[in-house]
Design brief:
The protein has about 425 residues and is of the alpha+beta class. The protein is built from 16 helices and ten strands. Strands 1, 2, 3, 4, 5, 6, 7, 8, 9 and 10 form a ten-stranded mixed beta sheet that branches. Helix 14 packs across helix 16.
Length: about 425
């Protein structure tokens, strides 16, 4: 399976438009194959990749299609020119494969919805080096911080550990703008991306309280997407809820687990706010209480366009709480479990930092699909115990032995083989 996924990446890279106008020595596909291989192998830096290139050259060519090693400047300047939307399109063939394998159907919630969690994170920050697309923060002490962020959209499931990135939108200064970009602006760009990547699937998108506004909800409606959005209080919805609470008109469901008492209150058809009275939303809140101590251990509130009943409220709560998987299973993994998302592989003058971040997300998507579908990957992970150990073992085998495929490396790890060294005379 993993080799098929890598071949899909290589096939997609061949369609990326070469933005360079001058004569060039290296094909843009070679540059992108090289960058993707670096992120998929989880090399800690471009210099580390270069140091090991001569030993790994044949394997890099066979597995990833890397033909030549360009200089650092040539590599970075070339990828710096690539329009990010060209790389964003590389996600869809992988997602189409998941559809053909029936994976999304197996992960349906609330009938036949696929859950997409959306949130932002940073991936570049410097007090020294900036670019025209950098957002800027001026501090009171006179110092300046330059930074890049991105908005990620990830297919999640309340009861499954694997997550599948479906879109990745940079939060950077837009061309010609003098103002910083923001998550809300980026959401206007990523929502059509999500729809294009997921085509005709029924989507329920999950957001935090930043997105509880009329224009955002209308943008979701335009793309035929349902939603669950966090609510932190002090909104017109909450004013209506307090009225219903005083009159004891909130609907209620209580259930228990082994150690917790769970309570959900809800109401349907509330006005979003005075400015958008035509938008009706449904509200639910959820409490968890420790049975032994009586202490409240969790509380949160949300709005949704899904009609709420006593039959679906428990699942709605599970789906709403799955939003945190983009933080825990996605951003945390990319920053702390070998993908080096926040490491500066190169900043560039246009799109380099953004394109490197997109390729990192793509490498992560490939691994998540392999984790979900590839038996060799699963068995190799079981042998290595941790992902960090697995990545280290893969790099070691890739460095030491000729290989025709990544699956061959997984099988080598599974069989716990050792390289036989010639005996000393």
């Amino acid at each position: 399976m993993i080799d098929k996924l890598i071949k899909l990446v290589r096939k997609g890279i061949k369609t990326v438009t070469d933005p360079r106008s001058k004569n060039f020595t290296y094909e843009i596909s070679n540059m992108l194959n090289l960058a993707f291989s670096m992120f998929h192998l989880k090399d800690s830096s471009l210099s580390s990749f270069r140091e090991q290139y001569s030993v790994r050259a044949e394997n890099l060519k066979r597995v990833y299609g890397v033909e030549k090693l360009p200089g650092n400047i040539a590599l970075r300047e070339s990828i710096d020119e690539v329009i990010p939307s060209e790389l964003q399109g590389l996600f869809k063939p992988q997602l189409d494969l998941l559809t053909k394998q029936g994976v999304f159907k197996e992960r349906h919630v609330l009938g036949d919805f696929t859950v997409i969690s959306v949130d932002g994170t940073g991936h570049y920050c410097s007090g020294i080096k900036g670019c025209p697309q950098c957002m800027i923060k001026n501090h009171r002490n006179g110092k300046t911080t330059y930074y890049h962020q991105l908005l990620g959209a990830v297919a999640v499931h309340p009861n499954q550990s694997t997550v599948f990135p479906v879109a990745c939108e940079p939060i950077v200064k837009q061309d010609g703008s003098t103002k910083n970009d923001c998550e809300l602006n980026a959401s206007k760009r990523i929502i059509p991306q999500i729809r294009a990547a997921m085509e005709d699937k029924k989507i329920i998108a999950v957001f935090d309280a930043l997105y509880i506004n009329g224009p955002h909800i209308k943008a979701l409606r335009k793309q035929m997407m349902s939603y669950i959005i966090g609510s932190k209080g002090q909104t017109y919805v909450d004013v209506q809820i307090e009225g219903l609470r005083k009159n004891k008109q909130l609907q209620n469901l209580t259930w228990q687990t082994e150690d917790k008492k769970c309570t959900a209150n809800f109401a349907n058809e509330l006005i979003l706010n005075g400015q958008h009275q035509e938008i009706l939303v449904n509200y639910f809140e959820y409490f968890e209480t420790d049975k032994k101590t009586g202490e409240q251990t969790f509380y949160s509130t949300w709005i949704t366009d899904i009609s709420i009943t006593t039959e679906n409220i428990k699942e709605l709560v599970d789906v709403a709480r799955s939003r945190w998987k983009i933080e825990n299973e996605t951003f945390n993994t990319l920053k702390n479990q070998g993908y080096h998302l926040e490491h500066n592989y190169g900043h560039g003058k246009k799109y380099l930092a953004t394109n490197f971040a997109i390729l990192t997300f793509l490498a992560f998507l490939i691994d998540q699909i392999a984790q979900h579908l590839d038996k060799d990957f699963q068995d190799a992970k079981a042998v290595c115990k941790t992902f960090k150990s697995l990545w280290e073992k893969i790099r070691s085998v890739f460095y030491l032995l000729p290989t025709m495929s990544m699956n061959a490396i997984y099988r080598f790890i599974i069989k716990r083989r050792q390289v036989k060294m010639p005996a000393l005379e």
